[in-house]
Every structure is written in C-alpha cells, then in structure tokens.
Design goal:
The complex is a heterodimer of chains A (about 60) and B (about 650). Chain A has a domain at about 25-60. In chain A, about 70% of the residues lie in helices and about 0% in strands. Chain A has three helices and no strands. Chain B is of the alpha+beta class. Chain B has three domains: about 20-95 and about 140-180 and about 340-455 and about 620-655, Alkaline Phosphatase, subunit A (3-Layer(aba) Sandwich), CATH 3.40.720.10; about 180-315, no CATH class; about 460-610, no CATH class. Chain B contains 19 helices and 33 strands. In chain B, the strands form nine sheets. In chain B, strands 2-33-24-1-23-9-10-22 form an eight-stranded mixed β-sheet, with helices on both faces. In chain B, helix 11 (about 355-380) packs parallel to helix 14 (about 425-440). Classes of the chains: A mainly alpha (about 60), B alpha+beta (about 650). The interface of A and B includes residues 53, 56 and 62 of A.
Chain lengths: ~60, ~650
C-alpha cells in the first residue's frame, strides 16, 4: 500500500532537519522508521510498562 | 593548628564542641572517614546500643555524639543523599522523588539520569552505526562537595554514594551507586529457569522466566537475554546461549557458557562470570557479568541468574571517575555488584527466592562490601590526607524485606518465617558494628569518624492510592465510567476537568494552567487549592482502624529553594508510619480502594513524613547542633578541611 501525506511547511522543515541530523536517506525512510518505532511501542506495551519494569528492579513497585 | 592544640586553646566552648572555634580556611585535620549506612534507624541503634550489642557504635558516640538527624523532604534515598552531596535542599539540586513527570505528557520519568540517543547514524548493511555515541546524563544539578575539595587539591574517595550515576565529572575517585542500571538499562531484571511448568508460566515483574527443559541426556539448553542491539536496523536483544549438564545424583550442575565451565552444587552461588554480548561480530561488543545460583535440584530444577551487571573491568557506560577506578577495584578486590541496589529484593517479592535464599544473597552482598571497604581503608591509611566516604546498602534493602518478620501487626506477618528469620535485622546491625570496629582499629585513632544514614525505617502495612482519593474528592475526573483497579489515569483522565493528580512515591501535582499540557488551575487559584488539599489530606483517616494517614502534606514552595522547583511536585506527601503510597498510585493506576493492605515482603519503608523516620548520626567528634540535618554534613566536611562552604549550600557546618 502506498499513501501520500501532505505535510505542513513547519513539519516539512522539521522532517528535513531530522533527516540531516540522523542521516536518513529520504523522507520515506524517516517515516517508515518512526512508524516502526511507534508500532514497537504499541506491541511491547508502552513507556509506562517499561517504567514499571524498571522501578520493579528497584523494589519499590511490585 | 592541630586538633589537639585547638582543644587545648578553645576553653569551655571547645570542651563542649571541640571544633567550633576554627575559622573557615583553617583545616582541622588532614583525614576524615565518613561511613554511609543507608537506612540505619536511630531507634533500632538506640535499642541495640542499650543492650550492649553495638559496642563500636556506642564507643564512637561516647567520644562524640549519637543523635537523630533530619532527613530530606521526602526521605527517599536519591533525595536525601542528594542533600548530602550538595549540602542543600532538593530545590538546589533538582531531585524530589525517584520519579518526576513530564508536564507536557503527564508521563512519569526517572529523576536521576537520562539517556540521550546516539546521533549521526551511518547505514552499513543491517547495521546503523552511530558516529556520535549516545550518552547518559546525570540530572542532579550543581556541584558536589568533593568538587570543592578537588579545587584545593584535597583527595577524596566517594564509594557508591547514591544519586551520582553517571558520576559527575571529577578527578576524585568516585564510584556510582544507587541509580546505576544493569546492562539492559533497567534496575535489575533477573532470569529464572525452572522445570516447574506452573512457575514458568507466571508473568513476573523484573524477571525473565523460562521453562527448563532437561533432555534425556540430562542437558538443559538455555540462553541469557542481554541488551538490545540498537546498531541493528531491526533492534533485537543480544543473546548468549549456554548448556547446563544436570547431575541429580550428586545434586550438581555444570554450566558451559562462552568457553567456561561453572560447577555448582545445590544452593550454591557461582562467582562472577564475565560475558561478552557481541554487537557486530568480531568488531564491537558489550561486557556484562552475572552470578548463577542453583536454587533447587531433584524434583524441581531451578536456576537463578542475576541481572546482568555492568562489568567494572570494561564498563559499557561510565560508572567511575577516573574511568579506570572501577577496574582497579575489580583487579585488587575482585569483581563486584555494580547495580545500584545489589540485593535482588524483587526475586523475594516474586517468590523466586525463599527468605533463606534472599538472606544468603544479602549476606553475600554485605561480605563483598566489607572486602571493598577493607581495601579502601588500607589505601586510606597509606595516604597522607583526604576523605574516604564509603556506602553500605545492606541495612536498607534488608529492612525493606525483613520488616514483617518481626511486626505482628503487619498484614504479611508469618509467624513461622518470623520465628526462623526474625533475628536477621538485628544481626545485620551487629555485623555492621563489627565491621566498623575493625575499621576503627585499622586507622589512626586521631582521625575523626562519622557514621550516618539517610533515613530511618517504618512499617509499611497499608498502601494508599492518592489518585483513588482524588477521584472520590472530585479533584480528578476520568473520561470513562469503566473504572477498575487496572485503570490508568494517564490513559483515561479528563484533564480539562481535573485539578490534581499524584505520581511518584511522595508526589502530588496540581494540573496547572500554562505548565501541564491541559492544565486548568490558574495561578490565582493555586495557593488556596493547595491549602485546601493539604488540610483534607492531613484529615484523611483509615476507615479500617481510625488512624490518620498523612502526617504532613508539605507544600513545596514553602520548603524548597527555588532554583529547580519547577521539577518538584506541588505537595510532598508525608505519610504516617505504617502507610505508604500504593504501587499503583505511584505510576498513576487506580486500586480497588483508597487504602488497602500491603501483602508482600516489601514490608518496611521510609517514603513517609521525614519527621517519622529520622536518620542516624554517630560521630567521634562533638557538634554544635542538637539535631543535625542531612544538608549540614557537606559544609561540615568542607570546614574540617578548611574549605569554605559552596555558595549554593543551605546547610550549616556542625563544627
């Protein structure tokens, strides 16, 4: 499936900066990478669960 | 001027407080020993001293003073030791709780350190190689007291003080303590292989649990899950396989891992085993280390593997200054626990450890601390000047887990366990006293010594969910009617209709306009609302027994310096003894009721009103205050060495 997404000027500028900063080869690669990371978060629960796990190691939260 | 000369010349005042007449800039001596004993409770010390069971602490106190010391608000270790490091209240160094929250998202986050991602990634096949590595940043602000010593060329060794991970830049010898993670970036995830099918299916916090399949040749194949390989485009954990050869007849097992063979008998711990987790085969790897503990053989096979510690020989992230200090310790004393809180309390809470297993581990950790202490003392004895600060964690972690053994009012009191193991808390105090006795014998008796803790201890019998209370009182609204004890306010809060929420172990926040993303409480309403909520919290009564729950609700702006107060909760909850925030409330999840019984081995705690859990202060020298404060220790140390207190220090020198 291919989709076209129209970005605002501000979002486009930010995306360009992120591409340069992280060395992505294209906007498509950036978007795919970000979607992958977000999807990973959904799959593995969320930040809160990770935090709970971390705090569990300290012992304060069971 | 030497201390003896000073005492001679000081007259009556000096007799009461031998160091008092020294002006700033004139050192009182060249060497000072400070021993930090996390959680050492002055009430218990007093009882055991009176019974003649802590002769060395008693002698020390008789020379100088044994008294209570005011802890920080709240009396959590990262905050209290932060006050020790900074000589200031948390408003100056910016850490108010184990957890802070991001007002943009309301999501809780760790207060002590942050991990910044790597930058400038280059693609290489399946890998993404960072040209600039990621880094971990200490969020404690401002200078540490040893920075001022460094400026004057006075050497200091700061061993495992909490709230110093990653260690702040210094030429002093510092080793990170509480807050130091394992190599997976958590505070300790252990691994269990069990042939008990039921146990292997349990979803345990902070644990990787696997079914131990032992084949007809009595071999179990397993793997240890390491950190995620973020260099891969598809990040996945790095695993290290191993084989365990089971000999039920002799109740032993041989573990083959990365070319090494480890032989273990039942109930035996292995030494540290260093492991390599490859990132790119042959080019890059991360070092870690574990200990194996063969819990059971026979009917059930149960093998515990400790969290994967950062190796002090090849630390994957900085854990000491100078960087070679941790390797020096490992070379001279042997490998040692590097995770901030080394005893695996979670393994006991989860039921993986029996109480006996946990005590075995606790004593092993304590023994290791003693060996490291002996090494540092020997070194300290040889050097002509300087400070040695050495930290012990065992009393704190032990009391968290052992409290219910002796507390008949605790809902988790087990008479049989109490009868078998009730001795252990007092025994840990006695062991510490014996270690102190050996230390005092090994150094020049003229060297002043201070033994201190960061807080005392209290029972944790009842858990309080402040978010449930806020919901009942109408300060917090949810966008759902489908409320259960698993409901998270982070997912369901109707923020535009909510005025307050609670996160962290003592934290209470207003949903403030202009600060929180969907804040509604205006600056004009703020003070009145804070006082209204403070009064209601302090009137809260436990329906089960009629006892007050909150001893004092501290309004932050009335108690802290303003430098980093924007990170602070608006109210710090000071619970009465017996009460603590519930596990769920700390992370923004609801419970079935506002107050419920605490049914777990984590049965003692100190996240209460600091007035209810004062710290201990035992020194060989007299001081000029009746009740010292945690903040006073740093200016005292500096004054001893003739160094003026830092401009940001809010504590006062005690000598």
């Amino acid at each position: 499936m291919s989709s076209k997404v129209k970005l605002s000027k501000e979002a486009d500028q930010k995306a360009t900066a992120i591409i340069a900063f992280h060395g992505y080869s294209s906007l498509e690669e950036l978007v795919e990478d970000l979607i992958g990371k977000e999807y990973e978060k959904i799959k593995s629960g969320d930040d809160k669960e990770e935090l709970a796990n971390k705090l569990s190691g300290l012992g304060y939260i069971s | 001027m030497k201390r003896r000369d000073f005492i001679k010349s000081g007259g009556a005042i000096a007799a009461a407080a031998p160091f008092m007449n020294f002006g700033a800039g004139k050192p009182l001596g060249k060497k000072l020993l400070v021993v930090g004993c996390d959680g050492m409770d002055p009430g218990i010390v007093n009882r055991l001293m009176a019974a003649g069971e802590l002769p060395n602490l008693k002698r020390l106190g008789d020379r100088g003073i044994f008294t209570m010391m005011r802890s920080s608000i709240p009396p959590q270790s990262p905050v209290a030791w932060g006050s020790f490091i900074s000589g200031a209240d948390p408003g100056k160094f910016g850490i108010f709780d184990f957890l802070h929250r991001d007002p943009e998202t309301y999501i809780p986050m760790f207060s002590q350190s942050d991990t910044l991602p790597s930058r400038w990634l280059v693609k290489l096949g399946d890998y993404r190689i960072p040209l600039k590595p990621g880094k971990v940043v200490l969020k404690r602000e401002g200078p540490a007291f040893w920075d001022f010593l460094e400026e004057r060329g006075i050497p200091a060794t700061i061993f495992k003080v909490p709230t110093n991970y990653p260690p702040s830049p210094s030429t002093q010898r510092t080793l990170a303590g509480m807050g130091t993670p394992d190599i997976q970036g958590t505070y300790g995830i252990y691994t269990l292989f069990t042939s008990d099918e039921h146990e292997s299916q349990r979803d345990l916090a902070a644990a990787n649990v696997y079914y131990a399949y032992i084949d007809e040749n009595q071999v179990m194949e397993g793997q240890l899950e390491g950190p995620k390989n973020d260099l891969l485009r598809e990040s996945e954990p790095i695993v290290v396989p191993f084989k365990a050869y089971v000999d039920n007849r002799h109740k032993t097992v041989r573990i083959d891992i990365q070319g090494r063979e480890i032989l273990l008998a039942e109930k035996e711990y292995s030494d540290w085993v260093e492991l390599t987790f490859p990132l790119i085969s042959g080019l890059a790897s991360i070092s870690g280390m574990v200990r194996f503990y063969l819990l059971e053989m026979g009917e059930r096979f149960r093998l515990y593997i400790s969290p994967i510690h950062i190796s002090p020989r090849h630390p994957a992230v900085p854990i000491s200054t100078p960087p070679g200090y941790s390797a020096e310790l490992a070379d001279r004393v042997g490998l040692f626990h590097t995770i901030g809180l080394p005893a695996d309390t979670k393994a006991l809470s989860n039921g993986t450890f029996s109480m006996e297993n946990f005590i075995t581990q606790s004593l092993s950790v304590f023994g290791e601390s003693c060996r490291l202490f002996a090494y540092e003392l020997e070194r300290f004895d040889r050097q002509p000047e300087g400070l040695l600060f050495f930290y012990f964690s065992s009393l704190d972690q032990g009391q968290h887990m052992f409290w219910a053994l002796n507390d008949k009012e605790h809902p988790y009191y087990h008479p049989e366990e109490g009868r078998r193991f009730g001795y252990i808390t007092d025994e840990l105090y006695r062991k510490f006293d014996r270690v102190l006795g050996r230390a005092l014998k090994s150094i020049d008796p003229a060297i002043p010594v201070l033994v201190m803790s960061d807080h005392g201890f209290a029972p944790f019998r009842r858990e309080v969910n402040i978010n449930n209370w806020l919901l009942r009182e109408g300060y917090l609204k949810l966008s759902t009617r489908d409320i259960s004890e698993e409901t998270s306010i982070l997912d369901t809060a109707d923020w535009p209709a909510s005025r307050a929420y609670a996160l962290g172990l003592n934290g209470f926040y207003l949903n403030q306009k202009g600060r929180e993303k969907e804040g509604v409480v205006t600056t004009g309403e703020r003070r009145r609302l804070l006082e209204e909520i403070k009064a209601k919290l302090e009137a809260l009564v436990d329906p089960a027994n009629g006892q007050k729950v909150v001893s004092c609700a501290y309004i932050s702006e009335d108690n802290f310096s303003k430098d980093f107060i924007e990170r602070a909760p608006d109210i710090i909850l000071g619970f009465h003894r017996g009460y603590r925030i519930s596990d769920n409330s700390a992370l923004g999840t609801l419970d079935r009721d506002i107050i419920i019984d605490n049914l777990g081995w984590w049965s003692g705690d100190h996240c209460v009103d600091p007035k209810r859990v004062p710290a201990s202060f035992v020194s060989s020298f007299k001081i000029n205050a009746r009740v010292p404060d945690m903040r006073d220790v740093a200016p005292t140390i500096l004054k001893y060495f003739g160094v003026p207190a830092g401009a940001g220090m809010t504590g006062k020198a005690l000598i």
